[in-house]
Amino acid sequence: MLPGTQRQAYEAFYRSARGNKILEPKTTLLLHLAAAMAFGCAP
């Protein structure tokens, strides 16, 4: 698990990527996968 400040930064990035209205759905999905993998989760 990440320390508090890094976790907050990750969560802020993930929320902004998830709530976007500009990127195509495919790009958003790739961002979610990359964020999950960076956090240590396997898709």
Biggest sheet details: none
Which segments are poorly predicted (pLDDT under 50) over 5 or more consecutive residues? Answer: none
Strand content: under 5%
Question: Helicity level, as a percent range?
Answer: 55-70%
Q: Please tally the helical runs, counting DSSP H or I stretches of 4 or more residues.
A: 2
> What characteristic shape results from the CA principal axes?
flat
Total number of strands? 0
Which whole number gives the mean pLDDT? 81
Number of folding domains?
A: 1
The topology string of helices and strands comes to: HH
Straight-line N-to-C gap: 17 Å
Instruction: Briefly note the structural class of the backbone.
Output: mainly alpha
Give a topology summary:
Elements: H1 4-18, H2 25-39
What does this entry show, briefly?
The protein has 43 residues and is mainly alpha-helical. The chain is built from 2 helices and no strands. It has one domain (4-39).
